[in-house]
Each structure stands twice: as C-alpha cells, then as structure tokens.
Amino acid sequence: MRRKITRPTTAKCDLPKYMGFLLCEPKSATCTRLGELSDMSHDSVNRFLLRENFGPKDLFLEAVARLILDGGTLSVDDTVLDKPYSHYTALVGHYYSGKHHKAVKGINLITLYYTDIKGYSLPVNFRIYDPADRKTKNDYFIDMLKEVLAWGLRPACVTGDAWYSSIGNLKAVKNNGLAA
C-alpha cells in the first residue's frame, strides 16, 4: 500500500516521474540530473521532495509489494555520498569511504537491504547519519532493525560488514530470534 501524496502537485515533478527516474538512473540520482533528463528544473524536483517528506516507512511500503517477507537475508551497510565542495551543511562531515579508502567529505547513508528467498533484493529502511542525533551507526542499525521487524519483515538472518559486529548489535539480532 503506497503512501498517498498530501495534495495534487502543480509542479512538473510528481511521484511516478520521480520513481521512474530512481529506478532507471544508474549513477547520479540527483535533482539536477532529473532536471537535465526531463522538461523540468531541478527546483521543481526539490520542491516536490520537500513538500512530500518521504521517510523510511514509505520506502518499506514500496518494497514489500515486490518481496517475500519470510526467510530472506537482511543486510546493513553504509555509504558516503561525496560532497567535496559543500561548506557548512548540517549533514556533511568526514566519513571513511571504502571507494576512496580514506575519510572524505560527504553525507553518510545507512541502509538495510533485504534479499528474499528467490534472490530479489531491495532497500527496506534507511537513515542519514546526523551528528545532532548523538547516535552511532550501531544505534541507527538497532533502531532500523526494530522498525522493519515491527513492520512485518521476518528475515532468517542478518548480515553486515565488520563495522556492525558490535556486541550490542549481535545481541539485538539474537534477542529477535535471528541468525547473524
């Protein structure tokens, strides 16, 4: 069940256009790139996203229509969205990037991916690391795990890279009856 938009848009950007773009764009899924590919300004895309304020549960509701919720594998990973030219932006900080093999300036995105028993894989939850929250990436992972389980996901096991192998994370996985 997809979330309904709050009101009809008068802008050129709408949900079907934006979702189609995200599904088809292999490298640069930005407002500017969508504006370049279509007959609209990047500001139209930005206004659409700001007005609707999509969140993690919206992503989950889109994904579950395509997934088998029982018995798959839930994986946690994070990535750095490079922002080398940003100055004094709240979410931009220095994070270790596996791509660059060093700390780079960017936005840290933490994602839970679910692969069902037929091998189909989609993201089901996300967080943007915000230092103002005073949480670690491990804290975000535990919050996200609790959410997807409460929303009805029933994975057989949970995986992640070594960064997510803290004792707190392993206990959270075990206490929810999942294999790590």
Q: Can you characterise this structure?
A:
The structure is a single chain. This protein is an alpha+beta fold. It has helices at residues 15-24, 31-37, 42-52, 56-64, 137-150, 167-175, and strands at 73-82, 93-97, 102-115, 121-128, 157-160. Strands 1, 2, 3, 4 and 5 form a five-stranded mixed sheet that branches. α2 (31-37) packs across α3.
Structure annotation, total helices: 6
Low-pLDDT runs: none
Q: Structural class of the secondary structure composition?
A: alpha+beta
Biggest sheet record: 5 strands, mixed
Q: What's the pLDDT, averaged over the residues?
A: 85
What best-fitting shape do the alpha-carbon axes yield?
A: globular
Cα Rg: 18 Å
Helices and strands, in order, run as HHHHEEEEHEH
Strand content: 15-25%
N-to-C span? 30 Å
Helical fraction equals 25-40%
Strand segment count: 5
Key traits:
about 180 residues, alpha+beta, five-stranded mixed sheet, globular
Short description:
By secondary structure, this protein is of the alpha+beta class. It is 33% helix and 23% strand.
Architecture blueprint of SSEs:
Layout: H1 15-24, H2 31-37, H3 42-52, H4 56-64, E1 73-82, E2 93-97, E3 102-115, E4 121-128, H5 137-150, E5 157-160, H6 167-175
Parallel strand pairs: 1-5
Antiparallel strand pairs: 1-3, 2-3, 3-4
